[in-house]
Structures are given as structure tokens and as C-alpha cells.
Amino acid sequence: MHYVYVLKSKKNDSLYIGITTNIIRRIEEHNTGDNISTKRYMPWVCVYFEGYFSKEDALKRETNLKVFGKAYGQLKGRIKNSLLMLKR
Predict the structure, then answer these.
(1) Number of domains in the chain
(2) What's the first-to-final CA gap in the chain, in angstroms?
(3) Full residue range of the structural domain in which residue 22 is found
(4) In what order do the strands lie in the sheet with 2-9?
(5) pLDDT in tens, 5-19
(6) pLDDT single digits (tens) 62-85
(7) CB-based contact 35:52 (threshold 8 Å)
């Protein structure tokens, strides 16, 4: 399986979107500073993920969320209660 995931920083409430085949390992990498782009905003918590059998489908979804504001906004609307629960 390939997963598109959304992490939320407990430091500044920013969101990060990524793709992986192992969510647990990947979150650990984000929280140990192994990812340069997320290191400054640790710790991170996973607030959402979607699973895909096809890597191509997962990559399309990740790109869609990162590039198209409408898709990103719709996702934030769907998970707004989860985001609010994780307020600092």
C-alpha cells in the first residue's frame, strides 16, 4: 500500500503532506529530525491518511493536494474537527 498522509506540527500548527509505504516509520523520521523540511517544526502528529494500491494514484493525490488550493481546502474542511482537537 501507498499512503498519502497529512501531519500537523504541534509547534506552530502548520500542515505537511507526504507519501510513504510505511506511515509509522515515516512519522518517526519526521519526529527525529531526519527530514530537513520538517525538522524545525517538530513534533508532528498524523491527522489524516489515505491508502492506495497504486503508487501512481497516491502520487497524483499528493500532487493534487500540494498544488491545487481547492483540493487542499476541501481536505482541511473534512478534517477540521481533528485539526481543532489538536490545538496547542
Answers:
(1) 1
(2) 32
(3) 2-85
(4) 15-20, 2-9, 44-52
(5) 999 999 998 999 999
(6) 999 999 888 989 988 888 887 777
(7) no
